[in-house]
Amino acid sequence: MGTAITFKRPDGKDASGYLANAARGNAPGVVVIQEWWGLSDQIKGLCDRFALAGFDALAPDLYKGKVVPYHDTDSANNEMNSLDFMDATTQTVRGAAQYLSRNGAKVGLTGFCLGGAVTIIGATKIPELAAGVVFYGIPPEQAAKPADIKIPLQAHFANKDDWCTPQLVDAFEKSMKAAGKSLELFRYDAEHAFVNEQRQAVHDREAAELAWGRATEFFRKHLG
Which top-rank group of organisms is this from (predicted)? Predict the structure, then answer.
């Protein structure tokens, strides 16, 4: 449904990504950030789904063409750990937001796992954003302080998550409240990455559909 595109980062360098356009011409935009596997077919499918829901969706390719197979967690971990999160967020992700906002559209940011952490960093660093939806990812507080978050956030976390643990989620929620920030937070009795329908071991269809409905409704409210 979508297409591979090239867009400019604020520093003038080229970045690439996958763009799916809504049927209407003046649609709001959503930047979609990959899991630690890379810009997989599953993430492209989510862009297609956002387009059907009425949003122009762009997933920037943070790994520059590399996609890690689902079984190879060591490689995925290596790719994630070698990613410059600040450069990825303030340049590649911001460039994607600028691309979607070029006709005056409001733009939101969402991401999964690694992309959830990038979404929170983006909420502090990317002025073009109007809202963010986080899926099971939290960056270290030195990367993004809750007090610096500038947009309304919605967040989805799994109670059986051993990476983004319930304790981490509790601490994040507490910090957001203490900073007086707008946060809608939902917890699901599911595993990490429960939205990813290509990973049958963790996918929870009921939780995924509930989260999807909440996310699209939140974006409609804040992006139009």
Answer: Bacteria
